Amino acid sequence: MIYLNFRQIQRVMASVATLFVLASPTIGYAQSKAKSTNAVSAINESDIKRDLFALAGDHFRGREGGSLDELKASVWIADQLRAMGLQPAGDDGTFFQFFHIQRTRITETSRLTIGSHQLVHGQDAFILAPAIASVDAPLVFVGKGSPAEMANVDVKGKAVAIEFSGSAPAELSYRRFLFGTMNRRAAELVKAGALAVIWVSDKEAQFYFDRWTTGLERGRYDLPGGPNTRVFSQAPTVWLPASALDWIKQPNQQFTNVVNVESFNYPSVNIVAKVPGTDPKLKDEYVLFSTHQDHDGVRRAVAGDSIWNGADDNASGCVATMAIGRAFAKQPGKRSALIVFHGAEERGLLGSRYYVEHPTVPKGSIVAVLNAEMIGRNAPDSAAILGQQPPHRNSTDLVNAALAVNQSDAHFKLDTLWDKPEHPEGWYFRSDHLPYARANVPAIAFTTLLHPDYHTPKDEPDRINTAKVTRIAKWIYLTGWDIANRPQRVRVDEGFKLER
To answer: Is the Electron transport keyword given for this protein (predicted)?
Structure first.
């Protein structure tokens, strides 16, 4: 295995990008006024299906952010954009904008012992957060932690073990419900004096232990200097499998946990391309079409499959955005089209956060952001716009443009529940439109919401409704075409402020 440092990778990728540009004929764009007719016919299902099976196939090994697989997939996307006739709009005349991501994880020197059981993080126990800890305390098992079971238990100075039980409401992602419940209850117990909290799966939760603990092996990520890079001490929260239930109940056991953490920097990359506009003045403004190319990579096998391909999340958004780029290359609008594939979205919207802080065009020239996030599953006529309603709506003009196209062309039944501030999934805050909205750029996201295969190896290309992806790609394109050719920019709503 060959290891390259960040600068070496950057030079290699830049050289590849230069070869892409030099190997193609000079790209010329008509500078006359944009025609009134659009190029929606350039968006077709055969292209989308071909690109989907290529990007979400095993060849790219799940495109994990910060890995060579993400970089390899990014080169492939850039090559497709070049072949379509798009111009590079990244750094140094390339399609790429590199940035660092910082990973903080639990070290192999960390130790966890309960009674006579020596446990290893990442194998037979999982610590929920990579934080420094040193605990040596008696263990008390409190059953399912009901008020009756807790009534006569003094948790102060103890490690508290609880059987995790229960199910999430049907409309929720069980993962979010589960971790939210664990963290909330653990915080309550620590406030009451507990030195550690140990969750033990029941039979129902064991399925989710097998399914969701892969992410805990990685630790946490952020841009360098971000809040998730800070190393701190806290009472550990540990998750055990259902097999531990038999012995965790034994009395007079001691909990000993020493946690150390370490950090690494990795390169990730945004892919940036453009189609210059045709209007002499408006071409200096940009309609930005946003998506992300990364997913979860290669992880512990589930049902014999270790590659988490991320066909819906978010190869579906990528191939739609590629199709939109193809349409603008065929017929440019008055304003320029800017295409951005954000890296490391799954690690905390890192690529979009970085691009907003380091845009390759003047930030004030970005007229609107239309983000594509998971657009290929669930009922054929169902979809949602994130940012459609207050307090998430930051541009009524932009929302109305998308709604008008849906009414005249797309004809989706729009779910509005997931965009509400009280929705427990917080879906609005989990995709790449968010950093732009926070920067007061008009921004919305198009999505078809969660499904049972979300963040599992079952998110495969053969489960994607490519006809639906094609319809949504046309919807996004026609909305963006409208914004690109309007005499006036869409406006940010006065007083826009997110609830968090």
So the answer is: no
